[in-house]
Amino acid sequence: MAAASNSRETPALDIGAERIARVYAQAIIEAADGKNCRDEVIAELEQFVSEVLPKVPRAREVFDSPRVSVDQKNALIDRFAVGRLRPTTVHALHVLARHGRLGIVAEVVAAARRVAEEMAGRRQATFTTAVPLAADDQRRLVAEVEQAVGVTLSPSFAVDPALIGGLVVRIGDTVYDQSIATGLTRLGGNLHRRTIHEIQHGRNRLASA
């Protein structure tokens, strides 16, 4: 199999929309940096997307609808955000509403996190394995992939039993998707055989994690 291929982390979002999300993400970060609160604003936006929006019936449909006026969308934002989120965060949501982009707020927030990680010299990476990995194994795997690709990673982990003994590493838009023994070592030849063996065969302690 090929060593790497380009793939989207958010397949529902087309390339054009993803670029738009990144433009707004960068603008949000610049505004937050002007107030010296980048981390706080991103965290609050993530909280808004993950905790607030799920409580609002048909939130994405409402935010994305041209039939709902900007004033109505702003009123909904204020209802859930004013007094709970800092003014810079609320302003970012109002800007999205004013420009008709509130429907992709989740994508904008995800892009903001990616941009912030990149600016800090880190790349987001998702490690998907067939069985759960113990914390020590996660740290060792991340360290070895960092050494192999020569970048600092901000990792997250997922489990997909369909992989059996495989491993998928997604770094930004690049996906390394192949068998452990023959493929992932092409990242740089620096993954230890012991790590590969443990993950590939899913040791009992990992399978029961």
Please sum up the structure shown:
With 209 residues, the chain is an alpha+beta fold.
Tell me what you see in this structure.
The structure is a single chain. 52% of the residues lie in helices and 14% in strands. The chain is an alpha+beta fold and 209 residues long. It has 2 domains: 10-118, Peroxidase, domain 1; 122-207, Glutaredoxin (3-Layer(aba) Sandwich). The protein has a 5-stranded mixed beta sheet, with helices on both faces. β4 (166-171) and β5 (174-179) form a beta hairpin. α1 runs antiparallel to α5. The model is unreliable at 1-12, 179-183 and 202-209 (pLDDT under 50).
Features:
single chain, 209 residues, alpha+beta, Peroxidase, domain 1, Glutaredoxin, 2 domains, 5 strands, disordered N terminus, disordered C terminus
Secondary-structure class: alpha+beta
| Portion of residues within helices | 40-55%
* Largest sheet entry: 5 strands, mixed
CATH topology of the largest domain: Peroxidase, domain 1
Q: How many domains?
A: 2
Architecture of the largest domain, CATH level 2?
A: Orthogonal Bundle
- Basic shape: elongated
- Major beta sheet, strand line-up: 1-5-4-2-3
Draw up the topology in text.
Elements: E1 5-6, H1 15-34, H2 38-52, H3 59-64, H4 70-81, H5 87-98, H6 105-119, E2 122-129, H7 135-149, E3 152-159, E4 166-171, E5 174-179, H8 193-201, H9 204-207
Parallel strand pairs: 2-3
Antiparallel strand pairs: 1-5, 2-4, 4-5
